[in-house]
Amino acid sequence: MRLLIVEDDDAIATPLLRAVQREGYDVERVATGADAIEQVSANPVELVLLDLGLPDMDGLDVCRRLRADGYQGYILILTARAGELDRVVGLDVGADDYLSKPFSLSELLARVRALLRRAGRSVSPVEDPVATGAGAPPGDGLRVDRDARRAWARGEELSLTAKEFDVLALLDQQRGAVVSRETLMNEVWDENWFGSTKTLDTTVGRLRQKLQDAAAPVELSTVRGVGFRLEDSAGDA
């Protein structure tokens, strides 16, 4: 697995780089936002450890740019900013997790492992049932494989962030029923999450757009004051 550390402070980057390497990951380090965007564009990266206080641009803008460019890996923000607003904005622009400085290396590594474990990255390409042809997705409809953490619309795989997939999987599991905002926040984020629920609306909005772009035969509708419902489109029911 290949990770990218985006951190301009050598005093933080050097021990972090060594710790991640000891875990067995292939890791590179860059010190600017521009280099991070270029590196991710040029090479496949499973996870980006992103500092917000970069010398050339704000880390939130880097995160936003990576997602806009189609990066579907994981982004773990590292920052000295402790305010709730920065944390919420970071999640809204596409980050998957947020760790405030100072932090222990053991906690950071645990979060890295948790993100990669959620992605089902332990399945190698050789073992991937879709890659080998076994259990290949059908040519039409929407299919969500929660074990492999993959989704297809009309036979084409959807490019989803971790949160987008988690929301889709939960809605798909109860397709046709309304899933409350509270259930989604508790299951996808954390039952102890006290930040703004705007991050849920942002995630659902991105997911809805991706489903529409892929011509998925489903509708993701908002039930005002309650939650969201995923159901088959009228013409495909």
TrEMBL record:
SUPFAM superfamilies: C-terminal effector domain of the bipartite response regulators, CheY-like. Residues 128-232 form the OmpR/PhoB-type domain. Signal peptide: none annotated. Residues 128-232 bind DNA. Keywords: DNA-binding, Phosphoprotein, Two-component regulatory system. Residues 2-116 form the Response regulatory domain. It holds the Pfam family Trans_reg_C. It comes from the Bacteria. The modification 4-aspartylphosphate is found at residue 51. InterPro entries: CheY-like_superfamily (IPR011006), OmpR/PhoB-type_DNA-bd (IPR001867), Sig_transdc_resp-reg_C-effctor (IPR016032), Sig_transdc_resp-reg_receiver (IPR001789), WalR-like (IPR039420), WH-like_DNA-bd_sf (IPR036388). PANTHER family: PHOSPHATE REGULON TRANSCRIPTIONAL REGULATORY PROTEIN PHOB, REGULATOR OF RPOS. This is Response regulator transcription factor. It comes from Nocardioides vastitatis.
